Amino acid sequence: MNAEPDLDMAGHEAKFTFQCLEGRKFPSIQSKDAQELLLKWYTFNDGKLPIFGSAFFQDPQVIYNLRVVSDSGKLSTLGIKASRAVADVVSCSVLNMGFFDRLYDNNVVRESGKIVKCFDEYWEDLTISDELRKMLLMEDSDNYDLYNDTERDEFLFRIFRHLCLGGAVCQYEDEVQPYLDMTKQLYKDLIAVQKDGSTSEIHITSIVLKASASGDGGQFYPSEREHIQDFCYLIIDPLKRHVNVLYHRFGASQFES
């Protein structure tokens, strides 16, 4: 999706509109020099974020192009204009997969990569049969404190947790590496980064929002209920003015981005 602010006759910002892009590229802004200049000249104003979610879910292009999935796995477009939307900022600052190294040092994952098993426990609709998922979900786990609340809010941690927990009918992995590999690949695809020309340091330029939309009958997106595996993230690239959407509905058979 391409996001552009509209201006009224007085030149004041009025609203956002969205246009669905079909493989469009922007060579003029993709060179290293151009990217450094754009990062210097333009930043996404955080003051716009409270209205961004509402604008997104009320835009005709979003309504008729954003795909959703039913519990049976049938795909359709959103088709409903939201009367209310919530878009909360999600921290996105981790640049290294070393973030997950501590899993190997605390009886969650063995040195070989095998995930340590445990007796089955149940959390909402999920069966917890190993120490990894127990650490991800259950506060009474001996390993829950491996990651503090700030770290658990990180977008990278959230992706990893969503992948590990899976869907309603999930064939869990016995080894952690497939989860780590998929987390890395998905994070890399979704997040925009910029290299500082003077220090050569890499910085994340994307802004991540956890979003939901409601109508007169209550919340309808990402689903009608609140569940840890029902989620929608809007990942904003402020330089290209693009929005990536990462969406999942628990119990369905589709994972959309």
Automatic annotation (TrEMBL):
It holds the Pfam family CFAP300. It comes from the Eukaryota. Its main location: cytoplasm. GO terms for cellular component: axoneme. The keyword Cytoplasm applies. Keywords: Cell projection, Cytoplasm, Cytoskeleton. It is found in: Cytoplasm, Cytoskeleton, Cilium axoneme. InterPro entries: CFAP300 (IPR029416). Cilium- and flagellum-specific protein that plays a role in axonemal structure organization and motility. May play a role in outer and inner dynein arm assembly. Belongs to the CFAP300 family. This is Cilia- and flagella-associated protein 300. It comes from Paralvinella palmiformis.
